[in-house]
Task: structure prediction
Amino acid sequence: KAGVTQTPRYLIKTRGQQVTLSCSPISGHRSVSWYQQTPGQGLQFLFEYFSETQRNKGNFPGRFSGRQFSNSRSEMNVSTLELGDSALYLCASSLADRGPGLSTDTQYFGPGTRLTVL
Amino acid sequence: GQSLEQPSEVTAVEGAIVQINCTYQTSGFYGLSWYQQHDGGAPTFLSYNALDGLEETGRFSSFLSRSDSYGYLLLQELQMKDSASYFCAVRSITGGGNKLTFGTGTQLKVEL
Result:
């Protein structure tokens, strides 16, 4: 079974631009989460989508948004880029959708998109 | 809110045993997970503790004590390839969904 894929792998943008990142989860996984990873802040949760609905949102400004399509593929968008948005953006999918248990807590991460804002 | 603290760096020699601690403050969570991340790579799932006690998976073991708000990852027979960052993580009971809160991360360096 193919793993989580993310495109593009690397991206360079300038301040003020916007960017769209894409994530395809493992087949059969309906929950897709996005994380931002930086050396200073570590791994921080952005948002989670399940069945095309945003189910959770982290503490990020409204410039960060996302969506999920009927095939579970997800995109995240960052508008009006700032230098501080430079980071590795990771997408993760999981099998189960709610409640306790290993299958819900285990998240499978994609390779990430390395975004550099100049 | 939730916070999980880990030592920033641990160094050990090949063949040794190392323990990476995770202390947390959280209102309630389903279980404690551990992830490994090599430089430039994606985090990969290592181990999960739903209940207090020790879980063993090959060379890796993980422990949880909810009464002490503490967990650890134990790596035995260290190999050079174990040099990576290790993160503990929890999923809140009250938050719903699959939001994971990650610890601060521990960089493990394995030396000859």
Notes: The mean pLDDT of chain B is 92.
